Amino acid sequence: MTALRRSAVFGLALLLWMGVYAQQPSQDALAAKAQQGKELMEAGNFAAAIPIYQDLVKAVPGNPGLVLNLALAQHMAGREREAVPNFEAVLKAQPNSLPALLSLGAARLALNEPVPAIAPLQKAITLEPDNTDARGMLATALMDAKRVSDAAAQYRILTDKTPDDPRAWYGLGTSYQALSTDAFEQMQKADVKSAWVLALVADSRIQRRQYRSAFFFYSEALKQLPKLHGVHSAMAEIYRKSGHPEWASAEDAKERALAPADCAAHPLECRFVGGKDLDILSAKLAAKPDLESLYWRTKAANELAMQAFFRLGQLPESVELHQLRADIARDSGRPMEAVAEWRAALKLMPGNPRARQELAAALFMANDYRAALDEASDLLKSMPGNAELNFVAGDSLLRVEEPDKAEPYLRAALKADPKMAAAGASLGLALSRLGRFSDAVPLLEKSLELDDDGSLHYQLARAYQAAGNAEKARTAMAKYQELVERNQKAKEEVAREAQIGPPK
Q: pTM of this prediction?
């Protein structure tokens, strides 16, 4: 909740109880206590205001205005779990209390409970449609609850109401990105080797500037769907970027030679070509949508995301713009650029915990383990139960050869998130390096699903050997060698296939 909105909410709440005291016994004492609570709230000393309002609620039981003030003090002090039932009590007595609706929604979001946050926030914007803070919180709750289409609709309204707000454009872009990802994942589950999937994989490689890989996937897609619009144009762009303008001209000619799309047979393609991306997303999907429908849905959502992000880039410098650039750098395998962007974001919002956590993760991905450790360990002073920060600190220590110091952080990460397989793998490696092989084995065994290069099998083989289990050690070592050989063959195959050759 923004400081301005908190001030407004508190002001509204104060009005609710000001008239109460004139009718109560010990009017002067109650008024003095109320004034004390008001001054503490205005000074930002919310925790100290809580017992004051608790006393007032006891003195004047059943008064919703006093209960609201108590709940606001608890909420602003970060004691969300205590505040929620008090906000709910206010809403039983006064169902249309805007301060209670807004604050209950904010408290639920702070507790990472987006689903129960939705109803009060929806009611708040029904009562006050122009309240952009309420709508922004509702959009956030819908996104966190995986109701992405509904979130996108709210963000679109926000961009209409506040066209210069970078938060609205970033939210709109990320919601469309999520819709695109969801449609693509459905395609992969249906047929990972289909031409529709291959063409989209190629699109993603273009965005990452991986032109040789994109060329390979486009070529494979064309073998199945030689008349797929847009692919020859994409191939032409690859040729231009790789210094083959004559080949690019040939691909452009092939694209022009394709017959126009048959709109009766391929209506979504015609809508996409006509720029009707929102129509594509609003079209109802079948229970088991076909790959072509999902393909154009993926393309349409991605196009809308790009439009939103382009608008964000036209606005003055913002935290959201740096966050977007950091996201792009991370996804493109350029972690040092992500580090620079998060540091730039922190100049605009110094000390922001979420930005600092992202910075710690980016430093870790950039192999700057000492810096990542410093950032994570400092944040853990105020967030000791954060699984990701404990993992970053612990794994960083492991990578700088301090497994004894890594162990408590990794155990804390697993306590916070028992399903964090990466933390289990790191803890297994740490224990192995400390010579505690019997303890390391079960952790390494559970982590083998993460082993894409054979390194975990190698460490498990060593642990088995040290624990005296020679047979299991031989089996694990054989699997390690198998993975190494398979990866080497895959690299050689990709190197052969991913050559940018002339048009066929």
A: 0.83
